[in-house]
Amino acid sequence: MRDAVAAFLRHLERERNASPHTVRAYGEDLAQFSAYLQRELGRAPRPADVDHLLVRGFLAELHARGLRKSSSARRLAGLRSFFRYLCREGRLEANPARAIQTPRQDKRIPAVLDEAQVKALVELPGVGAAAARGRAILELLYGTGIRCAEAVALDVHELDMDARMLRVLGKGRKERIVLFGRSAQQALAAWLEARARLKPRSAALFLNARGGRLSGRSVRALVAQRVKQVALEKRCSPHTLRHSFATHLLLRGADLRAIQELLGHSSLSTTQRYTHVDTRHLIEVYKKAHPRA
């Protein structure tokens, strides 16, 4: 099983151009599945040992441990891909995960901030390089809707300050162009000045204190710190700014297809969940404004 998993992860990295994060996530999920098989079989598992009952048992164990349906669905999708690869390579005759139904997902409305909350979070006063970097990161996350991982992966040469455009490498290594406004432009200009004084050891746009590339964990810590400083009652993460970006565009009349392109969604159905946020906003407006609501 271990050799088959290693071959599959190499296939993802070299042939499918999967990101390091995706390869790591698949590896962790398959290691978890292999550990389950080891307990059930009482020996080192082989791909040929796996049938649909073992896959169902694994998903049932995840459910019993309280794992969310979305996480179970991701693991099932990973198992399908793994066994599909083995079938294509001639190492298995049938995919044992193919016939198993994906858990029905709960439809959740993304958490978003209103414009005043975004302003308080992003424009928190501060001095020095760290403050300039924080302002630039938050302005960019909200001003472009890019993911946290995409932001920390940016290099300086991918930034066009005059055209106010960025080249972003998204999920599946799909490249797209995103736009940013004057507020983000000013914040980035201030950060680039501070960055030049840090003696960069990397081409990364956002650097840590040692001059290397900033991590996604550091960005999440930045957002958590800002939330405490402005006493924001809502839960907020870097992804909340992405949701807020899409929602505010939609509320101001932006076309859903254009939002899809800006966010880098491969399917329009993923972008359509923001229409539910729009509906919720209309309900809130109605309740506040209508005399008989």
Distance between the termini: 61 Å
Tally of strands: 3
Rg, alpha carbons:
22 Å
Can you tell me the residue ranges where pLDDT is under 50 for at least 5 consecutive residues?
none
Secondary structural class? mainly alpha
The largest sheet is: 3 strands, antiparallel
Question: Largest beta sheet: what is the strand line-up?
Answer: 1-2-3
Keywords:
mainly alpha; 3 strands; 293 residues; 13 helices; 57% helix; three-stranded antiparallel sheet
Structural notes for this entry:
57% of the residues lie in helices and 4% in strands. Strands 1-2-3 form a three-stranded antiparallel β-sheet. The model has no long low-confidence stretch (mean pLDDT 87).
Structure summary:
By secondary structure, the chain is mainly alpha-helical.
